[in-house]
Amino acid sequence: MRKLALAAGLLAITQPAQANPTLDGVASGLYNLEKSHAFLTWTVKHNGISSYTVNFTDFNADLVFDAESPANSQLSVSINPTALNTNYPNAEKKVEWESELATDAKFMNANEFPTITFNSTSVAATGEFEGTVTGDLTFLGVTKPVTLDVSYGGVANPPWFGQRDVIGFTASTTVTRSEFGQDSMAGIISDEVEIEFSGEFLQAEE
Amino acid sequence: MTIKNYLIAGSAAIALTACGSGATDSDIEADTPPTQADAEPHPLLADVAAANYSLEKSHAFMTVKVGHNGDITQYRISFTDFDGDLSFDPANPEGSNISFSINPAVVETNYPGDYAAGHPDSQWESWNEDISRDAKWLNSDAHPEITFVSTSAERADDLSGTVTGDLTLLGVTKPVSLDVTYNGVANPPWFEGRDVIGFNASTRLNRSEFGMAAYIPNIGDEVTVEFSGEFLQDE
Asked: Based on the structure, what is the number of domains in chain A?
């Protein structure tokens, strides 16, 4: 009986959230990233035993969204590789570590490559609210095609944005950092890098 | 462990974690798994010290995700000052005990730009401070600690299971179950033989049950808490 109760409790907490997105009435056109509700992280495995997650804290994105035919949409993203938050627990070392990550030639090498960009080349719908966005990722001066798995989360109309629509997305992909020339600390830091985005886009003013 | 084993363990852990984590309901309904007496330990557990471990804070992340604007996106808040103590027995993981202590006065939202300038009516200097100190959020002046103390653990398979314990948040204590995956052991040479073991854990809870009901449903009631981190064997 106790076990059944435990199982019931677990089922209750592992149910995914009920999302109810709609594309009905959503404006087509240019949207800009709503930066105060946007998160972009990269995660590598450390020593094979834990996931090390770092936030990009300065990035922008423009989305030309076609609500009737989402596959006609276009996305461009620009990321400042010097703006990183590792949540390192010692304030002084945090500054040093983030500076090293940003500028060291074996990591982001941002003095030489001050921008990471992604420009979509094609979009495909895989479901009513899911799809893939393929584009060119330029990182460390190397440009390679990368495909994002994207989910549309729905539309909101907070009153402070007037009639402008706010639409939400989550996106993720895995890149292989050695393909962009970064092979430092192999065996300690995984070659695979998981990228995750969750954020909102605000319809541009006319 | 030898360095060679350490690399093998690491590779295996990557393969395992790539398969996802967390107990499914079929795991939960399965018969009680074999005990140590009738099974060889899993290779990733075979050479791990039964000992007390402390959180290796420079490789530990705890993030809260909550739906925003009616769940169109997931807002992320990271705790950046927390500690954990683990007594771990690889031969009997169900007998392990873990406790976490989280400082709610230190959170990171990665808010862009100048919060104070954009919010002249706010009594707080930053959005991080607002989340930490405001009575409708973590109310850290009144409740300066969040704790989780395990009460039981159950194995779902060799490397994953559930840890149930008492979560105290905003002065309210409720049982919460974590889905936990053990990822393996490492022996970086600078720790001189002490084992480092890694885990992922996650849970979902309804913040209203702890008395935090502000802005539901524009900000979701359900929050997901995710942890990935390493524990270092005590000297």
From this structure: 1
Question: How much is the pTM?
Answer: 0.86
What are the DSSP calls for B28-49, one per residue?
A: HHSPPPPPGGGSPPPGGGTT--
Q: What is the CATH number of the domain that holds B54?
A: 2.40.128.110
Minimum Cα–Cα distance from A51: chain B residue: B228
Which B residues 120-139 touch A at CB under 8 Å? Answer: none
pLDDT one-digit tens code per residue, A149-164: 999 999 999 999 999 9
- Per CB-CB distance under 8 Å, the chain B contacts of A51 are 17, 61, 200, 228
Q: Is the peptide bond before B33 cis (omega within 30 degrees of 0)?
A: no
Q: Closest Cα of chain A to B142: distance in Å?
A: 24
Q: Which two tokens stand for residue B146?
A: 């969040």
Asked whether residue B221 is domain-assigned, the answer is yes
- Distance in angstroms (rounded) separating the CA atoms of residues B117 and B133: 19
Total CB pairs under 8 A between chain A and B = 159
ipTM for the predicted complex:
0.87
Contacts of A134 (CB under 8 A, 6+ apart): A120, A121, A122, A123, A124, A145, A146, A147, A148
Q: Whole-number mean pLDDT of chain B? A: 88
Which residues in chain A touch residue B61, judged by CB atoms under 8 angstroms apart?
51-53, 87
Whether residues A168 and B73 touch (CB distance < 8 A) is answered with yes
Tokens encoding B170: 């905003």
